[in-house]
């Protein structure tokens, strides 16, 4: 399970050090892809396989289904954690998420999200300002 917020740097070769506590969960392989809200999603291989199967099963006749599957599947890349605990983030994904040198790795249960540090702070601040409204809507969903 991934939880927490970690600040890291991307080196000149596009390598990102994965927080130590998450490396074991990614040892059997991982997949990085375009995420939502201009972030990247990093999944352990097993979790990615579950999601990819669901995406492949979406109705082809619906344009939103096709668009979302394309976003996630066509943007995906297998990555491995090297001996120093780093993964290489492909340039096209770094560009998609507008990643600068400073990034935040956020644990979200079954995946990690990788954010540009400035964008993360802006996003987090906006969410914190509406936390009451969000909680109310989640309450309506039974959460």
From TrEMBL:
It is found in: Cytoplasm, Nucleoid. The keyword Repeat applies. Keywords: Cytoplasm, DNA-binding, Repeat, Transcription, Transcription regulation. Gene3D superfamilies: Transcriptional regulator MraZ domain (3.40.1550.20). One of its GO terms (molecular function) is DNA-binding transcription factor activity. Residues 5-47, 76-119 form the SpoVT-AbrB domain. Its main location: cytoplasm. One of its GO terms (biological process) is negative regulation of DNA-templated transcription initiation. It comes from the Bacteria. GO terms for cellular component: cytoplasm; nucleoid. SUPFAM superfamilies: AbrB/MazE/MraZ-like. PANTHER family: TRANSCRIPTIONAL REGULATOR MRAZ (PTHR34701:SF1). Forms oligomers. Belongs to the MraZ family. HAMAP family: MraZ. This is Transcriptional regulator MraZ. It comes from Candidatus Uhrbacteria bacterium GW2011_GWF2_46_218. The gene is mraZ.
């Amino acid at each position: 399970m991934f939880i927490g917020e970690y600040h890291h740097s991307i080196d000149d070769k596009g390598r990102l050090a994965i927080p130590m506590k998450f490396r074991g969960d990614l040892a059997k392989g991982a997949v990085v892809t375009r995420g939502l809200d201009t972030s990247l999603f990093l999944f352990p291989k097993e979790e990615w396989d579950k999601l990819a199967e669901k995406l492949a099963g979406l109705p082809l006749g619906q344009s939103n289904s096709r668009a979302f599957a394309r976003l996630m599947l066509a943007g995906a890349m297998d990555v491995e954690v090297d001996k120093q605990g780093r993964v290489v983030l492909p340039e096209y994904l770094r560009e998609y998420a507008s990643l600068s040198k400073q990034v935040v790795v956020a644990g979200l249960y079954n995946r990690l999200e990788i954010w540009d540090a400035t964008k993360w702070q802006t996003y987090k601040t906006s969410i914190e300002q509406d936390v009451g409204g969000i909680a109310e809507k989640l309450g309506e969903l039974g959460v």
